[in-house]
Specification:
about 220 residues, alpha+beta, two-stranded antiparallel ribbon, 10 helices, 2 strands, about 15% strand, elongated
């Protein structure tokens, strides 16, 4: 194994309640303001794991609760429309959510959810696991990518980019820095991973690499 080999990792997580909840838009806004990066990531990315083969709508917990529980459909649509691929850090995502909520909070007689249907803020503790799989070139990379667990794709495309503050997915970083294939790395960077299921994203990556290597 070489130092420049790509190391495939995966992850697991334990989810906890923070103890904070919200019953209206104002309380949701205040909760988002004080939430940890882990909480924001959990509520904006959980759908990717829970719906590995079907893309749900709305695509984040805040949008779902506001639309379906609080019945603030317009605000829910605005939250659902936040394009996560635009952001390189969790604080940026948090600030955009806060901005949407602040622009739509009712100062008089705010709509309140039914008792027992409050929004519960949660967070996850992530455990990173080495799969033991290594790739030294694109051929080996594709062979492994075909069979690794989808959670490995999730880790390298989403968790490491935002939770580890890398600002870019691990695949593009390795292809550019270790293989010097800038064009392919940039093509992968331009993928909007939020528009795919995890299986669809895996297949898209494989197609891109095969087209590049055989083109």
């Amino acid at each position: 194994m070489g130092e420049k080999d790509f190391k495939f990792f995966t992850s697991s997580e334990l989810v906890f309640l923070t103890g904070r909840m919200a019953k209206n838009l104002s309380e949701l806004r205040e909760g988002v303001k004080v939430s940890s990066d882990s909480t924001i990531f959990y509520h904006t990315h959980r759908f990717l794991i829970q719906h590995q083969y079907i893309s749900p709508e709305p695509p984040n917990d805040f949008a779902y609760w506001v639309s379906n529980i609080l019945l603030e459909r317009l605000v829910g649509e605005k939250l659902a429309a936040i394009d996560l691929i635009e952001f390189k850090t969790i604080p940026e995502i948090r600030n955009r959510i806060i901005k949407v909520l602040e622009e739509n909070v009712e100062t008089k007689s705010p709509r309140t959810c039914p008792q027992g249907m409050e929004f519960h803020f949660m967070y996850s503790h992530i455990f990173v696991i080495d799969t033991g799989k290594r790739a030294s070139d694109l051929k080996e990379f594709v062979e492994i990518l075909r069979v690794i667990p989808l959670r490995s794709v999730y880790y390298h495309m989403f968790q490491s980019r935002l939770m580890l503050g890398r600002g870019e997915n691990d695949f593009s970083i390795w292809i550019k820095e270790s293989l010097g294939e800038d064009k392919l790395a940039n093509e992968i960077s331009r993928i909007d991973p939020y528009t795919y299921t995890l299986e669809g994203l895996r297949n898209k990556l494989i197609r891109l690499i095969l087209e590049y290597t055989h083109g």
